[in-house]
Design brief:
Elements (H helix, E strand, L loop, with lengths): L12 E4 L4 E3 L7 E6 L6 H12 L1 H6 L2 E7 L3 H11 L4 E4 L4 H6 L2 E6 L2 E6 L2 E5 L5 E5 L7 H6 L2
Length: 150
């Protein structure tokens, strides 16, 4: 599925790091940063998560809620959050259903081999549940600035 700016963000239901149900529709009235990343505890994903953590105050002033999505397990997310003191929810998408809704489960190539994996992308969703921006070239160490347009 290919999503564009101006499209209604697909609603999803999954679980966070605590095993609690998370549904996108529960965030209507707030801006949502829905970011997809490949794996917990890898250098780029850690840099991105820590940048969002460190800039949470700036993001909160913009009324943003941060939700990270990967295909890692609830247990992996718990460890990642504890290790890096992350201050936002991570969504476990082991069946890749959320990835598929947002078109972030894609064919990738490395060292001549083809495999399926996560495209690192961020969807900015406005208070009405509409996609207002899609960031496809994520700068992991400066992601909050990309989101805030600085």
């Amino acid at each position: 599925m290919s999503l564009n700016v101006g499209d209604k963000a697909p609603n999803f239901k999954s679980v966070n790091q605590k095993g609690e149900d998370i549904e996108l529709k529960n965030y209507l009235g707030k801006k949502v940063i829905l970011y997809f990343y490949p794996r917990d505890n890898t250098p780029g994903c850690t840099a991105q998560a820590c940048d969002l953590r460190d800039n949470q105050e700036n993001l909160n002033n913009g009324n943003y809620v941060v939700l990270g999505v990967s295909s890692d397990s609830v247990k992996s997310h718990q460890k990642f959050i504890e290790k890096f003191d992350l201050n936002f929810d991570l969504i476990s998408d082991e069946d890749k259903s959320v990835h598929k809704m947002y078109g972030t489960w894609v064919e990738k190539k490395m060292y001549g081999k083809t495999y399926m994996g996560t495209a690192r992308q961020t969807f900015i969703i406005n208070e009405n549940g509409v996609i207002s921006d899609i960031i496809t070239k994520v700068k992991t160490k400066e992601h909050a600035n990309q989101i805030l347009g600085e």
